[in-house]
Amino acid sequence: MSESTILQAVRRALHEALAGDPTVFVLGEDVGVRGGVFQATAGLQAEFGPERVMDTPLSESGLVGVAIGAALAGLRPVAEIQFADFVHPAFNQLVNEAAKLRYRSAGGWGCPLVVRMPYGVVHGGGLYHGQSVEALFAHVPGLRVVSPSSPEDAYQMLHWAIRCDDPVIFLEPKRIYSSLRAELPASPQPGEPGTRICRSGDDATVVAWGPSLHVCLAAAARLAEEDIAVEVLDPRSLRPLDMEPILESVRRSGRLCVVHEDNGSGGLGAEIVARVAEQALFHLDAPVSRITGPEIPGAPYAPSLEAMVLPSLEGVIQTLRLLALY
Length: 326
Hints:
Elements: E1 3-4, H1 6-20, E2 24-28, H2 44-48, E3 53-55, H3 60-72, E4 76-80, H4 91-97, H5 101-104, E5 114-119, H6 134-138, E6 144-146, H7 151-163, E7 168-173, E8 182-183, E9 196-199, E10 204-208, H8 211-224, E11 230-234, E12 237-239, H9 244-253, E13 256-263, H10 268-280, E14 289-293, H11 303-309, H12 313-324
Parallel strand pairs: 2-3, 2-4, 4-5, 5-7, 6-7, 10-11, 10-13, 13-14
Antiparallel strand pairs: 1-8, 6-12, 9-11
Helix pairs in contact: 1-7, 3-4, 8-12
């Protein structure tokens, strides 16, 4: 089989879902004729028609509201937000409507809705095309939040999300949309995504997702040359968090670092650290570390400043080296 990028894996999963289930449809701004701003839906409208791959007005609140109504009517909509930065007008629909439907109906109603959104800093994106929004949605009971970090995960997890009977925020790491390649399985495998150990080690534990995961994997490979074995874990599901593999790793290594490009205050890294403190405090042999973005309103446009807001390879190496030798 030929190798695929994350973007190609998303497109293949959407194509298979549309072909295999008439209740699935895609909607969003420019997803049809144009094929999406990143071409994730390229060619789908030509094959399945405008009623299955539907261009919408420039209204995130409107398109997510339509998707919620369609989910209640028995369909399985996949809504695209062009950039995660643009989801905020639809926040009320997602948090006050979609997330609460199962609870307010005493389990009588689900909301099988997927909202895809590219997130994170990308070269030259600036303030309104580079935000990380995972913490906003991972705080909300009733929503599921996932982020694939590889082509295989993008393929498998999007299929899972479309079959899920609860609303899923599907965060796509656009900075690595086309930089990674891997073979995809012949067909999707069942099962809810959980935390995956991407590299084994007993000297320190690092937890990261999206583009930051690959910085950590590169750092762990470099530190292995110094006989420092770092275990790298990818949560994949950000809500609910699959904490047990993280706790088991921390109990072995005695050290924890969490890396993400979103700013640190109220970030998901703080939640992971708090749970480790609650459940594995006396296994820690060193203070926990967090490597996050700075406390600024958005990513700067200038390339030199943009590089400064992202977790760097050398910065991660230095932090993990000190942590392992503490």
